[in-house]
Amino acid sequence: MPQSEITTIICGLIQRETIINRNDQVSIDRPGGHALYAASGYALFDNPVGIVAKVNDKFLEKYGKELTQNGFDLKGVTPSTRPINAMQYYRINAPDQWETSNIKRHFYELGLEVPKFLLQQDIHTKYDSSTIKAEDIPLLSSDFPPEYRSAQAVLLTPMSFISHNASIPFLKKSGVSTLMIRSSPSYMTPPKLPTIASLLKGIDFFFTTEQEIRTLFKSRFDRYEEMLSALKGFGEQYCIIKCQKSGYMILQADSTQICVVPDYAVFVIDPIGDFDCFCGVFAANYAKNQLPVKECALKASAAASICREGSGIDYILQSLPALIRMRAQTLYRQLTWCSLSSLAN
């Protein structure tokens, strides 16, 4: 059987996660990270999806077959020349609060033995200067395999500013017609404000969060509406914002109206990766299925709600399409519109 053509590429970090969620359920050493959460959301609507990322040399040996079976094309996932500090630990305490340290205490509180690899990783992280953080690995044009040349859409999940900024000219030159960026907190800071406009010029979709926007503009503006007005003028066609309290806002460059897409209310077990999942679902429905922006966001919000009800990419990949459709239909009836001037600060 001929291999399916790759139409969409997702770039970003791949990590190995251990999570204790709010139900005290423990998920040990599972594949995760921004790129895989986004790819899992994408795979609910289309596959295969091409992934570009750097990993440690044993990662593909351990997880490659499993990820390929889930609809991920891994030709762009290659071993790093330097060891990567790719282990990530989360102890979820609340819908928007988690810890990434105190591993021993959390396991002992549950009466569980701490996995040896986590103890070794803790020592390794503290004392071994030879490792590199996953987010510090630059994204290069040579990281994109020839098999991905026909791709028409690219989603850049959170990486360094250098990686995002350097890859865009190459991708445009390669014929990519839809460019999507999910911002990184690492560069959504006041010192980087003068460079953000050049990054976003000509981008189709910029996914970011209210908190990151407020941080970026905090030394420039006091009012949130002023921040959004400035962001709209940076050259991106659409800006999709995850709100602090709930839901998402869709800002279009040539419109004064804001579409507000609600969250589907659930009991949050684990929020890790929910916005990455949102971005992946949105990318699949826009780039592959060619749905209107509003409908893409509704399905993305519905899928993100499912992501919050469990832990890891495995839980996302088990989602039922009928459940996503049902939740999206419910959210459609809750859509609202507002203007910049009506936003509270």
From TrEMBL:
SUPFAM superfamilies for this protein: Ribokinase-like
Keywords, in A-Z order: Kinase, Transferase
Domain Carbohydrate kinase PfkB: 189-312
Gene Ontology CC: cytosol
GO molecular function: kinase activity
The protein's name: Carbohydrate kinase PfkB domain-containing protein
InterPro entries listed in its UniProt record: PfkB_dom, Ribokinase-like
